[in-house]
Design brief:
184 residues, Four Helix Bundle (Hemerythrin (Met), subunit A), 2 domains, two-stranded antiparallel ribbon
Length: 184
């Protein structure tokens, strides 16, 4: 295929890449990175494409999906050490960090690292020393935003992007949630 044809086909199929990225965006990797990986997959497909293979879009999908999956797999920063995974498995979030450290015979630092690396869905009730955060009293989206903000240290715009909300909505939910927690 000539370079001019490749450029035309590439530009004509960027919508396909966007559609696949939209379906595969689970908030784990920046959407722009997924799009770039998808574009690379489309380019690889174009380099190998022959019209005898049928429709380009049908031929390109496995290349695009494969590159996006590779990007998601490679974006995992670090495999957690076994000690941290053991803590995650055995931690009691109704207890304080100190109590968990004593109970699990681990350092407070390791317990905090474990909490920071837990899935958001597992964080229902966190007690930090003697301060109890009754997150179970909040709606699911409120809990998720609180955990993303204060456990994972996401900025409001990052939370908004990952949850497909506007930043003003995240701000409003965060304010409401914090007021609700303060009121007890």
């Amino acid at each position: 295929m000539h370079q001019e044809n490749i450029n035309n086909y590439f530009n004509d199929n960027l919508g396909l890449v966007r559609a696949i990225v939209k379906k595969m965006d689970f908030g784990l990797v920046d959407k722009d990175d997924l799009f770039q990986a998808g574009c690379f997959g489309l380019f690889k497909a174009l380099k190998k494409y022959d019209e005898r293979y049928g429709k380009l879009s049908s031929y390109a999908v496995p290349f695009i999906v494969g590159e996006i999956k590779t990007e998601i797999r490679n974006s995992k920063l670090i495999r957690l050490p076994d000690t941290i995974r053991k803590i995650i498995k055995n931690i009691d979030l109704k207890k304080s960090v100190s109590e968990n450290a004593l109970l699990l015979d681990e350092s407070k630092e390791n317990v905090l690292i474990a909490i920071q690396n837990m899935d958001i869905k597992n964080l229902n009730n966190i007690k930090e020393e003697n301060i109890n955060f009754p997150l179970e009293d909040l709606e699911y989206i409120e809990r998720k935003i609180i955990v993303m903000k204060f456990i994972y240290n996401y900025e409001q715009h990052e939370i908004a992007s990952r949850l497909s909300l506007s930043q003003s909505t995240v701000s409003r939910i965060l304010k409401k949630s914090l007021n609700s927690l303060r009121a007890g």
